[in-house]
Amino acid sequence: MRNRIKAAGGAIAALLAMVSTQMPAAHAWGEFPVTSPGAYLVSTTIANNGLPYQCTAGFTVRTPNGAPGMLTAGHCDRDPVNDTVLQRTPMGDRVVGRYV
């Protein structure tokens, strides 16, 4: 009985070690932070109501040269001069890429 308890305790300790091991943080490929489909995007252009135009990030893609990208609707890029993509977060708007 004691051997079974020791074996079970050892197995539990091994499982806890696997669960509690800190994994390295994920890093974005390139100069911009990671974003995901469904992210809340805002335009650098302000609408008549005083708020930025809004958009939602679409599917993730790869460009012909292998760089990561994100599809958006045609109405997302409202600014004819600025190609900056902003994501609205609880900490404020952050640059997550550029329209191409």
Structure description:
With 100 residues, this protein is an alpha+beta fold. It has one helix spanning 2-20; strands spanning 40-46, 52-56, 60-62, 68-70, 84-89, 92-98. Helix content is 19%, strand content 31%. Strands 2-1-5-6 form a 4-stranded antiparallel β-sheet, with no helix packed on it. Strands 3-4 form a two-stranded antiparallel sheet. The longest helix is centred in the N-terminal third of the chain and has 19 residues, at 2-20. It starts with a helix and ends with a strand. The model has no long low-confidence stretch (mean pLDDT 76).
**In total, how many beta strands?**
6
State the low-pLDDT regions, or none: none
Proportion in helices: 10-25%
**What would you call the structural class?**
alpha+beta
Largest sheet: 4 strands, antiparallel
Radius of gyration: 22 Å
> How many helices does DSSP assign?
1
Shape: elongated
- In the residues, how many domains can be counted? 1
Report how far apart the termini are: 67 Å
Question: What's the arrangement of secondary structure elements?
Answer:
Layout: H1 2-20, E1 40-46, E2 52-56, E3 60-62, E4 68-70, E5 84-89, E6 92-98
Antiparallel strand pairs: 1-2, 1-5, 3-4, 5-6
In short:
The chain is of the alpha+beta class and 100 residues long. Helices cover 19% and strands 31% of the residues.
Task: Give descriptors for this structure.
single chain, 100 residues, alpha+beta, four-stranded antiparallel β-sheet, 6 strands
